[in-house]
Specification:
66% of the residues lie in helices and 0% in strands. It is an all-alpha fold and 167 residues long. The protein is elongated and about 80 Å long.
């Protein structure tokens, strides 16, 4: 009987050892570089948004769209990390509201573009619906077929800054 107990304990200990993860290595080799990339790409997106809206041109729009793609790909690499800072204030939904089964992005975006508060100096996108705070709304503004006008530009810059700050 004692031999069986010792054998069971040995098996349990070996299983626990085999299942032990090196959490520091995971953080150092995956989590931190992934978030670092997201921060870098969203900072580039923010600069591209400001540059386009300061001097709209086809070249600046192409650069802005490329910045969006780079930042969005960085988000795709990070979105599976459902712990830590990304959960603070529901950031995962603020980065990207998807799937948007009820059309919240289009509905809230339309309302916001018609809202004169958008043009006020103290406008804060972080106080608006999660549907208009991230990539989902920015995609509609940048790839709608027509370049963002002055009002849409104000929103593009606000979203880009919000993404940069959250990253």
């Amino acid at each position: 009987m004692l031999n069986r107990i010792i054998l069971m304990l040995a098996l349990l200990l070996s299983y626990a050892t085999a299942r032990a993860y090196d959490f520091q290595a995971i953080a150092d080799r995956h989590v931190l570089p992934t978030y670092r990339s997201l921060a870098e790409r969203t900072a580039e997106l923010d600069l591209a948004a400001r540059a386009y809206c300061a001097r709209p041109s086809d070249l600046a729009l192409a650069h802005l769209q490329a910045g969006y793609r780079g930042a969005f790909l960085a988000w795709q690499g990070a979105q599976h990390l459902r712990f830590g800072p990304v959960q603070y204030l529901s950031r995962e939904y603020r980065f990207e509201l998807w799937p948007d089964e009820r059309g919240a992005v289009g509905r809230h975006l339309g309302q916001l573009l018609d809202d004169p508060a958008l043009l006020q100096a103290d406008f804060d996108i972080g106080q608006k619906s999660v549907a208009v705070q991230g990539f989902s709304a920015m995609e509609r503004l940048l790839f709608a077929g027509t370049p963002p006008d002055t009002t849409a530009c104000r929103l593009v810059v606000a979203i880009a800054a919000n993404l940069r700050d959250m990253a």
